[in-house]
TrEMBL record:
Keyword Amino-acid biosynthesis recorded: no
Source organism (scientific name): Cellulophaga lytica (strain ATCC 23178 / DSM 7489 / JCM 8516 / NBRC 14961 / NCIMB 1423 / VKM B-1433 / Cy l20)
Name of the protein in its database record: Taurine-transporting ATPase
Stored PANTHER family: ALIPHATIC SULFONATES IMPORT ATP-BINDING PROTEIN SSUB, TAURINE IMPORT ATP-BINDING PROTEIN-RELATED
CDD domains with a match to the protein in the record: ABC_NrtD_SsuB_transporters
Amino acid sequence: MAYLELKNVCKTYGQSNNSTEVLSNINLKIEEGEFVAIVGFTGSGKTTLVNLINGLIKPTSGEVLFKGEPVVGTSHKRGVIFQNYSLLPWLTVYQNVAMAVKEAFPKESKTEIRERVVSFIKMVGLSHAIDKRPKELSGGMRQRVSVARALAMKPEMIIMDEPLGALDALTRGNLQDEILNIWSKDKRTALLITNDVDEGIYMADRIIPLKPGPKATLGPEFTIDIERPRDKTKLNDNINYIETRNKIIAYLMAIGENRKSVSNTEYVLPDVTPKSFVGQF
Ligand SMILES: Nc1ncnc2c1ncn2[C@@H]1O[C@H](COP(=O)(O)OP(=O)(O)OP(=O)(O)O)[C@@H](O)[C@H]1O
């Protein structure tokens, strides 16, 4: 039995004439302990896929199974690191992480919870900002709180929706390594949604492209046959890395070209000037 399985999953938004089938016949199996990356184009339905797996939305048809059981609603067993960090603005960094930890570990003592929260905030390099509120943090710092919050809950499966996109290269690299540490040390299962092929190759066992939408489906998988732990500084000399990267990029470029050729529509912008601007220049 697969740890996570999607069987013929389709998702349509809207009703009748006004509807769009965003995802079409998605079939995916992830085994326990695997790290799978889905690489997709912008707007292809990546977040929709994450929300289906997380239980935030239901498929229009098909099934999402977690450990053999249909996914109904969210669960802290599946920890999601969202793209938009979704922190509670009135809580401090500590409180944002602690709230999630308390929910995941209701039987832990106050001291145990404090230790857990503090150690994960330290891991993401935010000890100095532990009592700050989200509005006092940069976008990258908020994203790091969101990573700490998801990982501190020790989810059985870590689901990441383009979690590191807003970060600088150094912070991004550090967090990739922290996520990999936790995944391998705690024997987790992980799904990473990204538009960065290099990030996918560095982190995952398999990469599966999500074709452009509407009616996005999954493309053929690419196995990443590079020994772990992987050394970023040596990847550029690794023949497996070079070959796999070239194959994935060629595939994505080919399906990207098809997408371009689907639409020849020209969009003409309206020729209007707001009244308040007239005479200002
Ligand atoms: N709740 C919704 N109602 C209607 N349409 C939606 C809804 N959510 C998403 N969509 C549409 O579904 C399509 C896929 O959106 P989604 O956010 O899943 O894509 P994405 O690949 O995550 O995008 P991005 O790369 O920009 O983050 C888009 O055309 C979007 O407008």
